[in-house]
Amino acid sequence: MSTYTTPLFIEFKKNSNPSNAKGMKAYMLHQFEFYGIKTPLRDSIVKAFLKENILTKVGALEKVMKELWCSDQRELQYAAIDIFTAHQHLWNEQSITLIHYCITHKSWWDSVDSIASDWLGLFFKLYPELTLPITKGWNESSNIWLQRSSILFQKAAKKNTNTQLLSNYILNLRTSKEFFVQKAIGWALREFSKTNPDWVIKFVQKNDLAPLSKREALKRIQKKIPSNF
């Protein structure tokens, strides 16, 4: 436990709830230990911690992230995601190495999706020249969490979505039997349907997607689907 993280560990331990922890562990299929701190309280603890504890060096941030990511309790990985988000002033091109580490270690939908939401869109906006080489490598990898990330990194892009990239990445993985990949395809399309429902309908109509992906993609736009679909 480093000097920087000590107050956070102390506060989390003080607010631990064994009863909650049992249920949270079961919900995550017993893959992780928990303090049993629910999201609103955890968010308030981390927010207060960050008010008093902002880092100024890239190396220090990387050490803190690795420490929290390697810790047993899952709340510490959630805190790490918030801490990294709060230190955007220390991000650089090499930060993608740490992002890759966090996607591929202690991987599950909760951390991977939070990374997609809080980090990826912003990182590739800061370093657009890295978007294609990094996400293409992820999409073509054998790691389902990197694959999922390649599909979800644009989910908040709205009208700035690169539809060609989205299309290519989905089609490359549409035959995947992995639940979390199929779900990601549907989720990405569902999010984009809020911006361009006609594009999503045409895409789903034209391409043979897994039933789960198709169902998720059209969930919000049922009324817009033509009768001859």
Query: What is the C-alpha radius of gyration, as a whole number of Å?
Result: 19 Å
Helical stretch tally? 13
What is the ordering of alpha helices and beta strands?
HHHHHHHHHHHHH
Principal-axis shape: globular
What's the total count of β strands?
A: 0
Kindly state the mean pLDDT as a whole number?
Answer: 96
In short:
With 229 residues, the protein is mostly helical.
Task: Please explain how this structure is put together.
With 229 residues, the protein is mainly alpha-helical. It contains 13 helices and no strands. Helix 4 (58-69) runs antiparallel to helix 5 (74-86), helix 6 (95-104) packs antiparallel against helix 7 and helix 8 crosses helix 9.
What's the structural blueprint in terms of helices and strands?
Blueprint lengths: L5 H9 L3 H10 L11 H14 L5 H12 L4 H13 L8 H10 L4 H18 L4 H9 L4 H9 L10 H11 L5 H15 L3 H10 L4 H7 L12
Annotation keywords:
single chain; 229 residues; mainly alpha; 64% helix; globular
